Amino acid sequence: MRLSHGQSYMQCSGSPMQHPHWRGKVAGLTDKTIKRLFAMSGNICGFPGCSLPIVESAGTITGEICHIKARSLGGPRFDETQSEEERNGFDNLILLCRRHHKVVDSQPDVYSVEALQEIKVIHETTVGRSEQATELVQHSFCKFFGRWFCAAV
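The structure corresponding to this sequence follows.
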């Protein structure tokens, strides 16, 4: 994958919140939350019946961090009473493949907050690893974000 200005992911360093790919997309998420999401995903899209990986065998991260209640005003399922901490907290996030992220956000009446919360709980209970990220996911994060991200894993 390439970033704008021809910079590859491997050339970037620093926090994911400062990384050009993540800037503006997951602002406000903590490293701990991101790590927990990937660990609890079982490296599989959270959408029922989908078996697409979140991290490909070559280490490419193809999953997307999706907000159950939208991150911004006007987004699908936005809740104005939600605090920024709740909005960017683990309980309001789910990892999906790009296709299913688009599906759930384009059909908020079908994929309500309650439906997505149930999907998340079932998926994480079934496939999640709460104790640590899988070796592949951990290795991919180290490659993607650099050593600083892996020091606490």
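Residues 1-25, 147-153 have pLDDT under 50 and may be disordered.
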